[in-house]
């Protein structure tokens, strides 16, 4: 099995001024078999979760870069990764359209379900830990209950691939980035009505 070497470069900024404080280059990590397509840092900043194209998640110690526990097999490309605010659960969004909820401590699968007809490109967990948002290449954003896996709402109103999703801190809105022929577009979706209330273009295609 071939391996992929990944150099982790961490840039530390002062949030108030965005001045560079420290440039930390970590040792090269050996990530097995496929490109890294997603990553997320745990709420306590102790761990880095890495999702790979070959369908695996590895949990790394953020200080030593050593893998913690066994590799987690997801079965499809791990495009989306999110950790719940308490650190109890993490969620993977996969290339086969499914979502899996995992127990962070035991690394065991809690539940999984088919969420979309096409790739789940991004997942996010609401600040209160109750909901999962998933953005898909089927041009929809879906909202799910984390504890049950039940569908709460499907957010529509656009015709483009959804690349990333995020909740606002008050959980009233879901921010989604969409692809279009004119470049990248972001939309702010009001969750209770599923209506895009703001849309703006960030950049233009070449």
From TrEMBL:
<dbReference type="Pfam" id="PF00400">
    <property type="entry name" value="WD40"/>
</dbReference>
<feature type="repeat" description="WD">
    <location>
        <begin position="29"/>
        <end position="70"/>
    </location>
</feature>
<keyword id="KW-0853">WD repeat</keyword>
<protein>
    <submittedName>
        <fullName>Uncharacterized protein</fullName>
    </submittedName>
</protein>
<feature type="transmembrane region" description="Helical">
    <location>
        <begin position="184"/>
        <end position="203"/>
    </location>
</feature>
<keyword id="KW-0472">Membrane</keyword>
<keyword id="KW-1133">Transmembrane helix</keyword>
<feature type="repeat" description="WD">
    <location>
        <begin position="78"/>
        <end position="112"/>
    </location>
</feature>
<dbReference type="InterPro" id="IPR019775">
    <property type="entry name" value="WD40_repeat_CS"/>
</dbReference>
<keyword id="KW-0677">Repeat</keyword>
<feature type="repeat" description="WD">
    <location>
        <begin position="113"/>
        <end position="154"/>
    </location>
</feature>
<dbReference type="InterPro" id="IPR001680">
    <property type="entry name" value="WD40_rpt"/>
</dbReference>
<dbReference type="InterPro" id="IPR011047">
    <property type="entry name" value="Quinoprotein_ADH-like_sf"/>
</dbReference>
<dbReference type="InterPro" id="IPR015943">
    <property type="entry name" value="WD40/YVTN_repeat-like_dom_sf"/>
</dbReference>
<keyword id="KW-0812">Transmembrane</keyword>
